[in-house]
Structures are given as C-alpha cells and as structure tokens.
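A favour, since you know our structure tokens better than I do. What I am after is a single protein written out in full by you. Could you add the entry underneath, on a fresh line?


***
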Amino acid sequence: MANLHSTSGAILFYTPGKDIASLDMDFLVHEGAIVDLSDVCGDYDVYTLKMVEERVEVKEGDILIIHTGYHHYGWDQPTGDEIRYMIKHPGPDLEFAEWAKKKKLRWIGVDCGSADHPMNTKIREWMSRQAKECDAHSQKKYGKTLEEFFSDDKYQLAVKNHENGAKNKYAHIQAPVSIEAIADGPEADVGPKDISFAELHDAFSILELAISEEVGFFERGKSYLAVRKGETKIDGRLPINTSGGLKSKGHPVGATGVSQVVELVRQLRGEAEPGR
C-alpha cells in the first residue's frame, strides 16, 4: 500500500520515494468499492476479508474504502476522542493484507487513524495500558491472545513488503531493502552518544517519552525520570523538542515533520531565538 501520510508521500520517510504528483492518475483515480463495517467493528476489533466480501464486490485493481465509523472520534469532531481514533480503532488481520496484495488493490482508504490494526504496530509497545485492554478483548471475543493474533513473524513485515513494492510500478517506494543493507548503511554506527539535541514527533505527549526510549536515549521506562531531572530542557544534557513540539505548534499533518527539520537546521545554524 502506498503511504499517503501527506502530499509529500514516501519522500517524508525515504528520499528516493515518490510524491503524490509523481503517481499516475489511473492509480489515484479508478473504480472502487466502499464497504460499511461500522455496525460490526468496535474498539480493538479485527476485520477480515470475509467481512468485506460478504458486503461488497471487490474487483482486481480496485480502490477500497472502508467505513468503520471512527471518524466520529477525530479531534475535529464534537465527539472527538483521540485515543479511540488513533489507538483503539479496528484494523485488519494478516490474511486481509495478503488478500489485498493478491487483489492488486490500488490503495485503501479508512476513516480512522491508520489502515493497520494499532496493536500490530509499535503502538503496542508504546501504549502498554491499551495493549493490555486489547489483549483481554481479544481473548474474550476471539479466543486468542494479542500475541497470537499479531505475533512477531506477522509484526515485522517491512523487508517482505519492500520486496513486493519493488515489483509494483505504483508503489511510492520501489526499492527492496534487507536487514544486511541496513546494518551496513552509513547511519548504522550512529548512536545516542552522537546526538546533542533532538526533535521527536510527539503526536501525543507520551510519544516523546516512548520514542526517546526507543532510540536509546534512555532506558526503557526511565525517560520520565530524565524529564523530572531537567535533562531534556533547553539547558539540559540532551535538549528535546526545543521548538516546543507538536504540543505547542499543533499538528497539521505533513507540515509537522517539515517544521521539525526547520527547527533542527535553525539550531545548527545558530538562528534560533535568544534563550532557545
């Protein structure tokens, strides 16, 4: 699936990737199917290809739009609930993903935080309380633990998907990757000791803590102690989000990542305002 996080597309994450303007119109505009699953999907639920095919005909090469009803929880809605919108929304199982690939679907659109199941992403590690809720829900409704639903062999699919994307002329990223290439890459030897300040994507405030642990700045579960000690303040040992982060700047999708790069450049050039 193409990444449509913003109009910059995969370039936001991968320099040789395509932006939206570089995609053919017959990829972006095509016949498609819309399926309403809002009456069968709730918090943490898993939807399947069977649920889709029972309600709508999906042809090879179609665009597929999935209605879950979770747009009602978007931050711009009267019933907004960002945790439900981003962390608790329903998502597909692995069989659905393989079916979508076999069907050669052009792209998939959903009305919630992501086309993934949130607990089949790093969110599972970042949001431990919600992960426990989802595990209990999965056992009660499906008779499976969260680990059984989304085990590690189903969780780490990046290498396989890049291999598939290399053969797909419509993919944003058309280059295979390998664990070996990543390990031998120029960034492989860069570690926390080489970083003097950082901008981290705090779409939720808790993510500053989670990401700072994930990249190795602090031990797992200890980042909050660094904050208490002032280590991440502007005059601290490792300043983080000197711009004020998304908490201060807001979160217009796409622009936030660019603004973080601008902040880093201004800091490196010494152009930041006095006191920053």
User: Anything to note?
Assistant: The CA atoms of residues 59 and 220 lie 46 Å apart. The longest helix spans residues 128-142. The mean pLDDT is 85. The two ends are 40 Å apart (CA to CA).
